[in-house]
Design goal:
6-stranded mixed sheet; alpha+beta; 15 helices; 35% helix
């Protein structure tokens, strides 16, 4: 009898395989980073072959470290960076181009002329470079012969869940409703590809995967996990909502990884946003009705720390950011707006660019690093305010997860800037846990969401310490920095 469930977590900067037991306890993991390919300003790509090879290695090492084999796993779930797209050859399995990553802004010029009202009405999304459709449109227009091959059915399109499932199963071409809902091509009412949108973007339907639910057995693995059911696919942020056991309307979580993503469960009815948020599919069990969510997406969270490390050389490691930022009492008026990929929710300004304002010769790397941590938190506050306006629900506590939550100073700043407690679960990497939960439910490893709720335990809670005046002063400075950034773009 299998006593464990596995999860492949294919993220923006790395891929990992994690193994969990019935209590939701991590048994083993292995993680490998992949290259960030930056061919031009605003362009971000990944090597899909490198990601697949890393996936195989992470599975092998994690199983070996745990002393387990594929037969010890009841099922495997997949969670993935959303919106990033790949086109590959149906016959050979070779990618036709690098993955175009969700952060990529090369398609900004393709947004003009789109029927924004139709897109919002059908998909719940604003037209933006963030989503998949314009990336596929760009590939079809710029890779020699690709459009003709797509029309002949010789190439396939997919987000990273589709790529992994296709490779694991030897050619099954599927995706789930959460990933499909991020393409700007799926109709929220029908949960199927929308013919009018396919025509708008000029994307042949023959390229597209079949849309399935988030938790069901798609097939069994024929490589690496030979014979194990592949029983879940769920976009990373929806997986974190699942892993945080936010199964009731009004429950919300924020995941801090490369970007930041706040999702609130809105139940079986999609809530249309009028304050810059996204209406998306939260998850779907088998043939049950889908559960919807409101989402506020922040392009740059942990990526701001990576930029200080990799591009500026201010840090030797991301972990150093806490000590360096903690060496000063505050940022002394410095504001960092990390709009490297434009500004996402609630602004939706793909033309925005990053800026550090308020600098003097007095300021040091410590002040800039602290301003980067504050930027993560102020962006989150912007989304929390928009969500309260759309949903009428005010958060009493923010449930958080993701790598940035390991930075205690950042989480304290988040509590101070929001003015509400911040709670981190015992398993902070809830993205992989959510994929494991979905797969386990699909095969009966867990019997109901009540089993999953019983597994959730708080690890740490941060209480706000700032006065209302200090909080308001910081918010005013942040909003002024946003205005300066947008004024500069308008003037340029």
């Amino acid at each position: 009898m299998a006593h464990f469930v596995g999860a492949i977590d294919q993220g923006t900067t790395s891929t990992r395989f994690m193994i969990f037991d019935r209590a939701g306890t991590e048994i083993a993991r292995h993680q490998l980073e992949h290259r960030q390919i930056l061919p031009a300003a605003g362009w971000v790509e990944h090597d899909a072959t490198e990601i697949w090879e890393n996936t195989l290695k992470t599975v092998d090492v994690a199983l070996s470290d745990a002393g387990l084999g594929p037969g010890d796993l009841a099922a495997v779930g997949i969670t993935n960076q959303r919106e990033s797209v790949l086109v590959w050859d149906r016959a050979t399995g070779k990618p036709c181009h690098h993955v175009i990553v969700w952060q990529d802004t090369r398609t900004e010029s393709l947004l003009s002329g789109l029927d924004a009202d139709l897109i919002r009405e059908r998909t719940g999304l604003p037209p933006a470079t963030y989503f998949s459709a314009t990336k596929v449109q760009w590939l079809l227009a710029n890779v020699d012969g690709l459009r003709e091959r797509a029309e002949r059915g010789e190439v396939l399109f997919g987000t990273m869940d589709s790529w992994l499932i296709w490779n694991l199963t030897g050619g099954l071409h599927v995706t789930d409703v959460t990933n499909a809902s991020r393409t700007m091509l799926m109709n929220l009412s029908t949960l199927d590809w929308d013919p009018a949108l396919l025509e708008m973007f000029g994307i042949p339907r023959a390229m597209l995967p079949e849309i399935r639910s988030s938790a069901e057995v798609y097939g069994t693995a024929s490589v690496a996990l030979d014979g194990v059911p592949i029983a879940a696919a769920i976009g990373d942020q929806q997986a974190a909502l699942f892993g945080q056991t936010c199964f009731a309307p009004g429950e919300a979580k924020c995941t801090y990884g490369t970007g930041g993503f706040l999702l609130m469960n809105t139940g079986s009815t999609p809530v249309r946003s009028s304050h810059g948020l996204i209406t998306t599919v939260g998850y779907r069990f088998g043939d049950d009705p889908p559960v919807f969510a409101l989402e506020g997406s922040i392009a740059v969270a942990g990526a701001a720390i990576q930029w200080l490390r990799d591009q500026l050389g201010v840090l030797d490691s991301a972990a150093e950011s806490e000590a360096l930022a903690g060496a000063v009492e505050d940022s002394e008026g410095v504001c960092f707006v990390p709009a490297f990929s434009g500004l996402f929710a609630p602004y939706w300004r793909p033309d925005a660019r990053a800026a550090i304002v308020g600098l003097s010769r007095y300021h040091t790397a410590a002040h800039i690093t602290r301003a980067a941590l504050e930027a993560i938190c102020y962006q989150t506050r912007d989304v929390v305010e928009a969500m309260a306006q759309d949903s009428g629900t005010t958060l009493d506590c923010l449930q958080v997860d993701g790598g940035v939550t390991g930075n205690a100073l950042c989480m304290q700043l988040q509590a101070d800037i929001l003015g509400v407690p911040v709670s981190r679960p015992a398993v902070a990497e809830t993205t992989a846990l959510g994929a494991a939960y979905a797969a386990g439910l699909a095969v009966g490893f867990w019997h109901s969401v009540d089993d999953l709720r019983a597994n959730w335990h708080e690890d740490r809670r941060w209480q706000p310490t700032w006065s209302a005046d200090r909080r308001e002063e910081g918010i005013t400075r942040w909003k002024a920095a946003i205005d300066r950034t947008l004024d500069w773009v308008s003037a340029g």
